[in-house]
User: Fold these one by one.
Assistant:
Number 1:
Amino acid sequence: MEIAILAPVYNEEKYINDTIKGLKAITYNPDIFIVDDCSTDNTLNILKDIENINVISLKENKGKGNALQKGLETIIDRYDAIGFVDGDVGLTSREMEKLISPILERKADVTIAKFPPPKKKGGFGMVKKLSFYGIKFFTGKEIYSGLSGQRVFKTEVLKDFKTIPFGYGVEVGMTIDILRRGYNVIEIPVEMSHDETGRDIGGIKHRLKQFVHIGIILIRKIFER
């Protein structure tokens, strides 16, 4: 089975090198595709110096959903399974191996990484609650990691989507659509970590943007029913 890992990144100069190192350590030897969403820091220059990866450089920043869409347009017909990973997980990206195994063993159509509890206080749980209850409302299923960007799909699942949901609502929107179509989704506990946001102004703005994007996705789903 041919496997690819797709990582949309924006201004990840601090983590991207280690994230790629972790992906290269996966025993299944997936092909690695990095979609640079018009980074303004040194991310793209770092990527140019890394061997044995594929870089897709976008000319305009349009968000995570668009970056994933552009990446898939390039690779979807070439692989049997495709994983998504965020650029800020560092060396813990090696844990993606745990998500690949059930796909290869035909135990799941989609796997989602279930992270351990955060190491520092972040928000107040509103975004997670919106994700959990939004998914449950539309599908009847309880998915605790609906916000997780670390996933692996059988390619046939991804081909069922005409477009990827936009912005920070991408994971929740996709999870709802996948479950509605009857695919088998399982959550896999992993020892992964990412760049956690705190309760400062930047962190609050980030979570507010997440909340709004997810809310828009859920409202759109009402009219799709």
Number 2:
Amino acid sequence: MILPIIAYGDPVLRKAGEDIGPDYPGLQELIANMWETLYASHGVGLAAPQIGRSIRLFVVDSRQVLDNLEPDEREEYAGDDGVKQVFINPRIVDREGEEWAYEEGCLSIPKIREDIYRPETLHIRYMDEHFQQQEATFNGLSARIIFHEYDHVEGKLFIDYLKPLKKKLIRKKLDDITRGKVQVDYKMRFPR
């Protein structure tokens, strides 16, 4: 089932998620719904807070982006094979490498894209959808997407990395999103 994406301004996006166990009610159905919602909204990552759940769960599919890059663009991300993965109760263990800029966007903050600086590599510990402990290192675009989704389960948004002047310049657009004055081609739930 395709779920509505929670829009900027809803307090759930600012709340750190709680760890969950394998007995979390309807977990496998929730994960399936998150994948369906991700693809229906043309996203590359989706965190549980974005669908109204304050839990430490997100899904990422960077392969769809990397597989569709032109050969010269693909060279920029050599060593990043992409990832399609469920992350439950994730914890970043380490961040490495030089920070690099990339224009990020967010399904919860439509129509706004800004250059955000993040490290090249991250090392993360998490449970997969079968509650098997995993530990992995990701780099490039995959690392960036995981960093972005990880921020969601910490109650952070990509716009939090912007300088005060830049935030001031996008304030009206953010207010419009909060008021539901934005058109998207996916289901959204706006703050009441």
Number 3:
Amino acid sequence: MNILISGGSGFLGSAFSEALIKRYRSENKEVQVTWLTRDSSQPHPVDIKMMTYDELTNFDKSFDVILNLAGAGIADKRWSDARKEQLLASRVQPTEALLAFIACINTKPKLLVSGSAIGWYGDQGDEPLIESSDFNTDFSHKLCDDWEQLALKATDYGVPVAIVRTGVVIHPEGGMVSKLLTPFKMGVGGQLADGTQIMSWISREDWVRAAIFIIEQHLTGQQQAHLNNTGNTLNTANDTPAAVYNLTAPNPVTNHTFTKTIGAWLHRPTFFTLPKFLLKLMFGEMSTLLIDGQKVLPQALLNAGFTFKQPTLKQALEQKV
């Protein structure tokens, strides 16, 4: 497999790259991973090739698969108008570059896997949400939808598209958990607001396994066989297939349960509560990510036969690093 990854050096892209190379080499299969970057001099594993966006415009060879993960972290800063524009641009610009590349090359990729998030569904409380569910409009939805609709334009060039809507990614030494370690270890960790909001999450290992599963399902010709049974097909202006997958574990939890599970894992108390008004004061509009809930289920993955290694939050926190 020859795969191009935007956002390859990130929390998900780096883990995906390592796992893909390890798996394919253990099976004596050829694999080449290339990271698309703005700075080819950045540190990277010796097994990874680097390519700049400028080099991509003149590259005349194809890739079997493109994995599009580039995008600034939605929860990294308050949502000022300038920050909202930055969040959108950090997703749109890399995707536009990939579309321009796809349009120019003679041999098209067999698949474009493009990132998104469960924010696409908007705030829907404890309503179970699967890939065919509707959405509520808010900033998170619009950001995700604009990104998805742009990626789907790859079907205009005959390239199938898989959209992956990712939940909160859990890993003992990275992502959201790493940001929480200090306050929890200090004994000041606690639930947010009333703690009833649902958090849909996935372990990083299962995210990587799911992404590889989706790619291999397509490359081995099995994707179309189960698309009609999963309810996750997307409408396009042509006959090129497109589908969406919720990359979440099958057991979402309330914020209260999440807090207690983190506390138990660290053997620390969780007596504190950050009230809703204080969260809104601290984070502004971005507080919706902490206050509102989404019960997003991975129906398409389960229907396709995917098995989770860490289906519970406790297992995800205790996974081997």
Number 4:
Amino acid sequence: MAWLVTGGAGYIGSHVVRAFTEAGIPAVVLDDLSSGIRGFVREDVPLVRGSILDGMLLERAFEEHDVTGVVHLAGFKYAGVSVQRPLHTYLQNVTGTATLLGVMSDRSVDRIVFSSSAAVFGTPDVDLVTEATPTRPESPYGESKLIGEWLLRDQERAVGLRHTSLRYFNVVGSGYPDLYDASPHNLFPLVFDALLDGRTPRINGTDYATPDGTCVRDYIHVSDLAAAHVAAARRLDAGEPLEPVYNLGSGDGVSVREIMTAMAEGTGIPFEPEVAPRRPGDPARIVASGELAARDLYWAMRHTLEQMVSSAWEARRGAAS
């Protein structure tokens, strides 16, 4: 018996897989390696290479590895790019999820932990986002994640699917020296790449209505996120109740300027960031409460900002050497 982790060769997925195996829960990875990295999957973990759009491949994976639960992380994850590629985004994230759920139903696999996103909220008009905050996604990516949550809800009604969706905010750091964030769109790798290339990192906008004028966001360590997946899977295996959605947030947030200061200190490369114009659609503040997740999933911010930076830098620098 094993849990299938779709997208398990990615930055977040590989951390989830290692958290599962270290907790004694067998895992198998399904990944088409379009953005995942083969080396992120240890040799003792089965890897099925392919897409969640391939129903026959999914059927074989479920049969050969006796899959009893799914962590679903696979998908197209770039909110900005999704505006230019909406059909691709919906194909990967909506059709792909529907295909996966169909195979789960056919195979009588009734438990799933879904990778959702803070993008379902769009630009919230509250200081602290909770699970009750209205969802108003502003990109095809955010819309596709919300539709994914609806699909799980509807399958619960139809066939008794047991599920929960974890809404991520900004995932950073590294739990292992060989796992790093390779995204071309996330803040940490963008800053690290600039420093490694001898360029000066930039801040987009310094005139927001925040204490230092820069955007405030939730930043959570990837290992803390992975631990929440293990807790959710264990509760589903035990038949214990879970909320349909959980926000994995810090409750207070960090500004972009504070991130830059921590990066200069953590990397040992002093710099003064360049100031660029605001990016359209960037809200001044998105910070979430993690109280429900703390109650049910033992969620906690176990890493400081300094640890987030230092662990991410060690892994990224190792990959560049």
